[in-house]
Amino acid sequence: MNTTMFPSRPLRWLTLLLAAGLAGQIRPAAAAESRWAHTGTDGQLAYQALPAGDRILDFSYAGYAGGGVKIPEVPVKLTVAPGTGDDSAAIQAAINQVSQLPLADGFRGTVLLAPGVFHCRQPLEIKTGGVVLRGSGPLEGGTTITMTGDPHLCFSIKGNGTAKVIGKPAAITDAYVPAGTDSFHVSDPENFAAGDSVLINRPATPAWVKFMGMDTLVRNGKAEHWVSGEMHTERTIKRVAGNTVTLTVPLTDSFDARYLNPPGGTLVKCDLSARPVNIGVENLRIVSPPQAVTINQAHNQALHMDGVSDAWVRDLEVENTVNSFYFGEHTSRLTVDRVNIRHDAASLGAAKPEDFWAGGTETFITRCSATGNNVFYFSTGARMMGPVVVLNCTFYGNGHIQPHMRWGTGLLLDNCKVPQSGIDLMDRGIMGSGHGWTIGWSVAWNCTAKTLTIQQPPGSMNWAIGCKGRLESGTQPGSPEKKLPNGIIDSPENPVAPASLYLAQLRDRLGPQALANIGY
Description:
By secondary structure, this protein is mainly beta. Helices cover 11% and strands 41% of the residues.
């Protein structure tokens, strides 16, 4: 027997032991975990709360139909082919015709744009629920909309966004309602029932504005004003037990009676039945000429949406639009998936336009990208009360992910990459028109950026967990002597498990099929 081919038994065992040892050495180390959100002994996520009970929000409700729901393939009712001149009127006529069809399972039908190049000089409007506009593909051989004529908006999707208030508001009676909770106590529960749409109203009192350090903003000798009046968020009641109201989606902000009373937070029933639902734009390319313009000049824009729920925008390639995608404060349960923006010319001036702007609630932006300079790749609007999630998005160039103005809450940046610029959860102070504190109760999770500015607002928190990038502190713009504290920085330069917070939360709430439904 040839012992070089068949080693002796001791040698074989030694070889196996060495192989096992080497295999153990090359196994990847277990990912770090964060105490703020980690997998518990039961396999579900467990959370550590701050002393007052505030915790990282369950963001999984963001997205079409409340998250984890597959976007439907809606049957085609009309097809439009490119013409020889301006195609705006032909496309709009088809949208209007389908908008008159009866609803079937929540939809009227799809307008399909045939392959080819459509030239449009006017905005295309969808105002009716159940209507989808679909191209024949965003790449070569598919559908291209070329924006011609004077600068304009390509798609306007606008419904009756105002919530109709029903009855009188009930006072929230808790001395403190933590951020991330889904229940609280009210003074008059008998007017509420499971399934009711409600507005939760949070006053911006002078006492709270002072507590936030936003009462002394002065620019060029003139006082700037931050937030006043009320901030509102829409929710649905899950159940009422005694004077305890439980919501289907948690709150993104805290309610501290020391600063909000009087008048205090309130709950009021509302009617959202007039709001259009089930609207989509998908599967096409939008092309604008390059625009080297300031934010105040007229420019071509891709899509504005407001006053609608359960909507989506997916599979779009977008070239050279400015202030491209705006989702207003009255949008809810929205998915934006695989939308890619490219700028061939940088914007001009210190004031930067936004590629993606989110102002509503339950907004889910995933697998999107933008390439360009002197822009905000993603921003939030004033008084935005999420959840809003940006997942697996990558942005290239000299631009930032930066919530923009006047206090938003409940943002998750999950596995986002800004390799040449920054992620900023910060106080903008006197910048703009007194934008001040832009965001609180928000999380950057396993993100990568050249720089990370993660600041802690008074009475609130922001987290950077498992993120890579140079951490920067700062002072309040306009008040260089006012040094601002950092938020919670956990596991810097070392990504944590679970790899995606949003997907783990979605799996916990709805099971693995929910991930498959949204393509994960």
